[in-house]
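Pilot study result, target chain (97 residues):
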Amino acid sequence: RAAGRPVPTKRVAPSADLPEKRRRIYDLRTDLIVAGDRAYARAREAGSFAVFLRGIAPDVARYRRAYGADSPVERAKRFALRRAPRLTRRVQRALGR
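Predicted structure:
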């Protein structure tokens, strides 16, 4: 336990032999926790959830970029999946089905 806070059981043995990307993601998670705690305190003082969201937005963006969630390929995939049902209906109407 760290500072009296519960810590989950490790599912994988600790190792210093991590790929750089994975190590960066772990570091960013820690940064996100710290930023979240700070943003939460400010939001409580202000009485505004928007203050919390603005406070963590830069850290969330960095975390997503590290994961590759905002890569051009991921964006194109999300776009295609969102548009596929409409495009399918259009094609079926055009073909008279």
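One observation from the pilot: The chain has one domain: 20-94. A full batch analysis is planned for the follow-on phase.
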